Structure formats: C-alpha cells, structure tokens
UniProtKB/TrEMBL annotation:
Transmembrane segments: none annotated. This is Enamine deaminase RidA, house cleaning of reactive enamine intermediates, YjgF/YER057c/UK114 family. Residues 5-140 form the Endoribonuclease L-PSP/chorismate mutase-like domain. It holds the Pfam family YjgF_endoribonc.
C-alpha cells in the first residue's frame, strides 16, 4: 500500500516535520524498526498547551493526540519511511493531567484511531497511556512510536 496516496484519499495533509527541541534525532532506524521520538501537538504552527482535567477538555486532548500522530507520520515521511511502514508496533502516549484525571486511554485514542485510519489493520498496535505532571514546552500531549519497516 502507498500510504502517501492513502493520506490524500483521506484528505489528510501532514504538517511540516518539527525540528528537535533538544539533543536527539526525530527518527532512528535499527534492525528493521523505526523509533520515532516523542512528538508534541502542533496546530496551526502552535503547540497545544495545557493540562487535562484543568484547562483542556477530553475532546481537546484527543485532538492534541491526533496532532501528535500526524507529526509522527510527518517525521516518517521526512525520513523517507512512510511508504515503507509494515506495521505500527507500539505507541506511547503521555498526557499532562491533574492527579484526578483518569481518561488517559481515551485521550490516546486520538493518535491510535489515526494510525488505524491510515494503515488499516497494520495500524493496530500495543500502547501505553500515562499521565504526567508536565511535558516539554507545556504541551498537553506527547506521543512516540515504534514502527516495523518492510524488508
């Protein structure tokens, strides 16, 4: 499957791949796997900030997680790997939240649902969704990925 074509069929335009904000690279390929560094949510070029359970709604968190997923796809595209994806293996979702907020899995669905929409069954993956006190740049959500590549 050509996933660049699939994105066009879905009417999805990927954002420009964000530059790292510290000492790391966006994607590392090793042993047939692509490890995508944690991506934060950008909408209209601005970081989606805030905390779930405080000033960000569940729906806002899901939107942020989807935006993180779009940035993961953008990083894969920038690395020339998007059409080499065999399977999304695992996503890790980090949700900036109050101690009382417990819907982290529902927030992470924003990214998970995107992966299945784009990659079909190959987009179904293992996942962790955890709450954290703070994220880089005040981001509401951060998501990283492990992706198997075609041989």
């Amino acid at each position: 499957m050509n996933y660049t074509t699939r994105l066009a069929e879905l009417g999805i335009t990927l954002p420009k791949a964000a530059a790292p904000v510290a000492s790391y690279v966006p994607v590392v390929v090793h042993g047939g796997m692509a490890y995508v560094s944690g991506q934060i949510a950008f909408v209209d070029g601005k970081v989606m900030t805030g905390r779930l359970g405080d000033d960000v709604s569940l729906e806002g968190g899901q939107t942020a997680a989807r935006a993180c997923g779009l940035m993961i796809l953008a990083q894969l595209q920038a690395a020339g790997l998007l059409d080499q994806v065999e399977r999304v293996v695992k996503l890790g979702a980090f949700v900036s939240s109050t101690p009382e907020f417990t819907d982290h899995p529902k927030v992470a669905n924003g990214a998970s649902d995107l992966m299945e929409q784009v990659f079909g069954g190959a987009g179904q993956h293992a996942r962790a969704a955890v709450g954290v006190a703070a994220l880089p740049l005040g981001a509401a959500v951060e998501v990283d990925a492990i992706v198997a590549l075609k041989a």
